From TrEMBL:
InterPro entries: WecG_TagA_CpsF (IPR004629). This is WecB/TagA/CpsF family glycosyltransferase. Keywords: Glycosyltransferase, Transferase. It comes from Paenibacillus rhizoplanae.
């Protein structure tokens, strides 16, 4: 398709952040298409999908996959089918919160730790007063707590469900409960975005963003949640991605 580019079998959207926001605005306002699952995929997730059969199945079933990483943009350019810009989970979340502030949308937030979740909600209430926070729950829950969380989401009927439990866990969690969450219009994962909104993690300075070095800023300054791989280990996927997409014929 003209509006997509396939990288290692993953069909990435070529829409800009503004165009993606407009598409999702139409999806939410129409409300007739059922649950819309968007995935923000970076080189690490793209590589993981080559060997993780469940992740590949999830990617194949997603409604839209946006390029969350400069490596994806570079690989598309190398193929001669360029992507205009990255569409990161953090930027997309802020864009949708701004649009939701105009539209009066409701959001449910699932993920991060309890203090960070609480602080993030305070900041969202302050910055986007017309956004309705339908509910929230931290991401460190036991399996026997899941039915209650699902029931809470079903009862609150949010327009948008935001998952902040890290990738690919967020997308796998959604895939597991997709049939139970059909009343929601849009779902996507945002990684550590709530940590930034809450103030727990400082955002990358503008100069780092301009140079496409946000990944390096996170590597140096962002804490890693308990149970997650170290950022240094995760970044080891980048050379493999470069080799697979830009060097090897």
């Amino acid at each position: 398709m003209k509006d997509k580019v396939c990288i290692l079998g993953v069909p990435f959207s070529k829409l800009t952040l503004e165009q993606t926001t407009s598409l999702l605005d139409e999806q939410i306002m129409d409300g007739q298409g059922g649950l819309f699952h968007l995935i923000t995929a970076n080189p690490e997730i793209t590589l993981a999908s080559q060997t993780d059969e469940q992740l590949r199945e999830i990617i194949d079933s997603a409604d839209l996959i946006v390029p969350d990483g400069i490596g994806i943009v570079m690989a598309a350019r190398r193929q001669g089918n360029p992507i205009a810009e990255r569409v990161t989970g953090y930027d997309l979340l802020l864009s949708l919160l701004a649009k939701g502030n105009e539209r009066g949308w409701s959001f449910y937030f699932l993920g991060t730790d309890e203090p960070t979740s609480r602080l993030a909600m305070e900041q969202i209430n302050l910055r986007y007063p017309q956004v309705k926070i339908a509910g929230r729950h931290h991401g460190f829950f036991a399996p026997d707590e899941e039915p209650g969380i699902i029931a809470s989401i079903q009862q609150s009927k949010p327009d948008v469900l935001i998952l902040a439990m890290g990738a690919p866990y967020s997308d796998k969690w959604l895939y597991k409960h997709k049939e139970e969450l059909q009343g929601i219009k849009l779902v996507f994962g945002v990684g550590g975005s709530l940590d930034v909104i809450s103030g727990k993690v400082r955002p990358a300075p503008a100069i780092w963003k301009k140079m496409n070095l946000e990944w390096a800023h996170r590597l140096l300054f962002s804490p890693v949640a308990k149970g997650q791989k170290s950022r240094w280990r995760r970044q080891s996927a980048l050379p493999k991605f470069v080799y697979r997409t830009m060097i090897r014929k």
